[in-house]
Write a structure and sequence with these properties.
about 75% helix; mainly alpha; single chain; 5 helices; Ferritin; elongated; about 140 residues
Amino acid sequence: MADNNIIEHLKRVLADNYALYLKTQNYHWNVTGTSFRTLHLLFEEQYTDLFAANDGIAERIRTLGSKVPATFSVFASATNIEDGNENTDAQTMVKELADDQAIILKSLTKALHAAQETEDEGTIDFLINRIGVHEKAAWMLRSSI
């Protein structure tokens, strides 16, 4: 039987991931300026990964025996990621997304610690891989500022 603490942490990770996916896609659609093409492509790469990760996180929650709450209202109440404003300038978009990567890394790390406490190797492996992805995404964003 899976530890409910791990499941709750994974639900928070899913909410953060979904919110970051939506915000990154918003910025992909609406970025303008001299760095348009570079940022448009970077944001697309990142939201594509986040979209795929939503399914992986949800499947991990199901693997652990829980249903996956997946509504905008549930995600909105559980996420630490703030909505993006499509009228924001490109550099602010990049800074916000870099800051959001730090936020999701905190959620992932908390979930990892919970999984380590119960020696849930499958969840540990999954979370370590996601941490690596988000560390790289944060680096790419910070390097674009």
